[in-house]
Write a structure and sequence with these properties.
mainly beta, 3-stranded antiparallel β-sheet, 8-stranded mixed β-sheet, single chain
């Protein structure tokens, strides 16, 4: 199954294959600021993946020292996907909203629950972690 995710204006797109390896939400303050929302919803996919268009990149260092490279559309500013340094050729995380698919699989994991807004309700059966479990 081919899945296509894109920014608001359609200039930046990523094509992934198959079902996601995992879907999760992150409530960390960096993700809240990055998305402009109260959490980020992400889906991980194994390579291969194809990128179409031009991206602006932003590198952020995570709590455990990993470097994440976020890709944004330079036209509309939408954050579409990111990779982790050292894993660019094998794995990509795509913003669930960029698929614009209300039938997309629900999250299985929630990280940085310590930063979750009190009014955000998690789906039944989701595994919640106070911080990043890795």
């Amino acid at each position: 199954m081919r899945r296509l995710a894109s920014c608001s204006c359609g200039q930046l797109c990523i094509e992934v294959q198959g079902e996601p390896d995992g879907v999760g939400v992150c409530h960390c303050l960096a993700c809240q600021r990055r998305t402009g929302s109260v959490f980020a919803a992400l889906a991980g996919f194994a390579a291969p993946y194809k990128v179409f268009g031009t991206a602006t990149e932003y590198i952020r260092v995570g709590d455990q020292g990993a470097k994440f490279k976020f890709r944004f559309c330079p036209v509309c500013g939408t954050n579409v996907f990111h990779t982790e340094e050292g894993y660019e050729q094998s794995w990509v995380a795509v913003a669930v909203g960029a698929f614009a698919d209300p039938n997309f699989p629900p999250p299985q994991d929630s990280v940085y629950d310590c930063r979750r807004h009190s009014w955000v309700q998690l789906p039944p059966g989701i595994k919640a972690y106070e911080k990043d479990p890795t």
